[in-house]
């Protein structure tokens, strides 16, 4: 059975969460500019961070209160649908999909313009677990942690896999629930333990996240997105500045390690949680701590193992080290896989999405980009000499090309003219950033102007040079974590400024002093939509009704 629907917007998603998990963002920043989030109660706040359930509540409210052409955003959402393929013919994109869990129930969506916003955390990455058929307990990904009974079950032995923030959150909650917790870190093919740092702020800033929302803090990382001026050249291109920045980041790194006290007395192997590379390089997972007692709890109550999995038995996990870990449940904080699998390799090559490196039809393309990136790499090292000598580190083997989307959103255009180009597809949220709310809001404004042909782009050659420069910089700046060409961990303020500069929008600016030293709040973006409407002469019919 199949149905056919013509749509102007298709949103596909699923909810997940756990009441005791906390956000990595603070009150006043985790919201869109046109609707303020209600302040959570004090018991759900920690240094202005808050329990993630309030973000879920906010988004639920947002889709019910925003109505366009007589329909709310909730009315427009098709839940529990999985896309199978995307194609374009005769000026229309056709999206073939089916119900989750029932592939026989198929749907066809047709639209002249397509926005792909499936993000980076839609499909769980489940590890290979030899012998899982004989394991009698639960095996869950972090995605399903909130909907499971694993913490209320009478079974006691919980084993957590993974080295990132999601694993750390599950470890903490399992200990607090009275479980016997084992935390397993991979021994090979890994960037090592995550870097978890104190959320404490300095001076007038309430927490570390607020500091990261300032443009002055953004200039302390070497990035083309912050613009090259006397200040950034002093910090990152001069011998004195490079030494100063090395000292600054070295102090931040040392303070974080000292606070964790990895050499303390512990239950088992707490020292194995110490990150193997400096914080500056972000070559491992990282996050802000949401609990003041996190390291104390882990050191006293968690058995930590470093080893690769050999086998699962009925009630235990066997490592290649020979260690056997009693396990009633295995929780996987093992990340995510790309959510763009409904595009063919040929489409990925055409759009600038990651595709297999040894794809036969892409050999000429690979050679072309290799030349561009080699030239760009010379520019990166000439501008940021500190990136020339990274520490010893694990480097993942590249199997796919990096993202090659212009402005991290759209295929590189054959022409700068909107009349000659096919401006009918945009990819939102395919980047790693510190705060998705303002980033996606600004991406959306840019995307609207692009899709409507109101945005002038540089030539194809200039677009390619821009993409190649970012790719080369990303590999140097974020090492293994930068090889996909979409890492903006410390750089989203500069990215937002770049998008708004493209659009010629200025209403978010607050004067030179506040622009530099004040954090970027959601409310600062409140005038951008009206400014865009006026600048590009949109009429009232597209406004909120």
UniProtKB/TrEMBL annotation:
Signal sequence region: none
Flavoprotein recorded as keyword: yes
UniProt xrefs under InterPro entries: FAD/NAD-bd_sf, Flavin_mOase, FMO-like
Any one GO molecular-function label of the UniProt entry: NADP binding
Pfam families found in the cross-reference section: Pyr_redox_3
Domain of life: Eukaryota
UniProtKB keywords: FAD, Flavoprotein, Oxidoreductase
Protein name: Uncharacterized protein
Species of the source: Botrytis elliptica
């Amino acid at each position: 059975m199949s149905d056919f629907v013509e749509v102007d917007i298709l949103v596909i998603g699923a909810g997940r969460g756990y009441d005791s998990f906390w956000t990595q963002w603070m009150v006043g920043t985790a919201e869109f500019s046109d609707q303020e989030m209600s302040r959570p109660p004090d018991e759900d706040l920690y240094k202005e961070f808050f329990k993630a359930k309030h973000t879920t509540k906010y988004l639920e409210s947002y889709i019910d209160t925003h109505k366009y052409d007589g329909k709310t955003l909730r009315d427009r959402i098709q839940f529990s649908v999985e896309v199978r393929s995307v194609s374009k013919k005769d000026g229309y994109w056709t999206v073939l999909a089916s119900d989750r869990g029932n592939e026989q129930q198929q749907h066809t969506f047709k639209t002249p313009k397509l926005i792909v916003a499936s993000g980076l955390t839609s499909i769980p990455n489940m590890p290979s677990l030899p012998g899982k058929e004989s394991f009698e307990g639960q095996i869950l990904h972090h995605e399903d942690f909130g909907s499971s009974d694993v913490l209320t079950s009478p079974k006691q032995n919980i084993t957590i896999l993974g080295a990132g923030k999601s694993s750390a959150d599950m470890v903490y909650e399992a200990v607090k629930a009275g479980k016997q917790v084992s935390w397993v870190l991979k021994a090979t093919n890994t960037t090592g333990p995550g870097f978890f740092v104190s959320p404490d702020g300095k001076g007038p800033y309430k927490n570390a996240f607020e500091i990261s929302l300032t443009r002055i803090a953004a200039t302390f990382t070497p990035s083309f997105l912050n613009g090259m001026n006397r200040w950034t050249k002093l910090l990152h291109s001069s011998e004195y500045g490079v030494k100063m920045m090395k000292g600054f980041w070295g102090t931040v790194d040392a303070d974080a390690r000292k606070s964790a006290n990895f050499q303390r007395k512990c239950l088992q192997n707490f020292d194995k949680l110490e990150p193997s590379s400096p914080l500056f390089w972000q070559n491992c997972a990282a996050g802000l701590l949401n609990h003041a007692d996190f390291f104390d709890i882990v050191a006293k109550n968690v058995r930590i193992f470093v080893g690769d999995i050999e086998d699962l038995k009925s009630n235990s996990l066997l490592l290649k080290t020979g260690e056997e870990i009693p396990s009633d449940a295995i929780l996987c904080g093992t990340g995510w896989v790309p959510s763009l699998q409904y595009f063919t390799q040929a489409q990925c090559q055409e759009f600038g999405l990651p595709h297999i490196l040894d794809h036969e039809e892409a050999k000429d393309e690979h050679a072309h980009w290799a030349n561009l990136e080699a030239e760009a790499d010379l520019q990166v090292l000439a501008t940021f000499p500190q990136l020339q000598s990274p520490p010893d580190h694990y480097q993942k083997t590249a199997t796919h090309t990096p993202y090659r989307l212009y402005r991290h959103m759209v295929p590189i255009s054959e022409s700068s003219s909107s009349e000659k180009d096919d401006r009918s597809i945009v990819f939102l949220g395919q980047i790693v950033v510190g705060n998705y709310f303002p980033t996606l809001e600004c991406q959306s404004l840019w995307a609207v102007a692009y899709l409507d042909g109101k945005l002038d782009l540089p030539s194809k050659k200039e677009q390619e040079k821009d993409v190649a420069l970012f790719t080369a910089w990303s590999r140097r700046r974020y090492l293994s974590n930068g090889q996909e060409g979409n890492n903006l961990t410390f750089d989203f303020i500069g990215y937002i400024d770049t998008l708004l500069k493209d659009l010629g929008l200025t209403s978010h600016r607050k004067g030179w002093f506040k622009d530099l030293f004040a954090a970027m709040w959601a409310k600062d973006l409140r005038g951008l939509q009206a400014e865009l409407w006026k600048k590009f002469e949109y009429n009232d019919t597209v406004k909120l009704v």
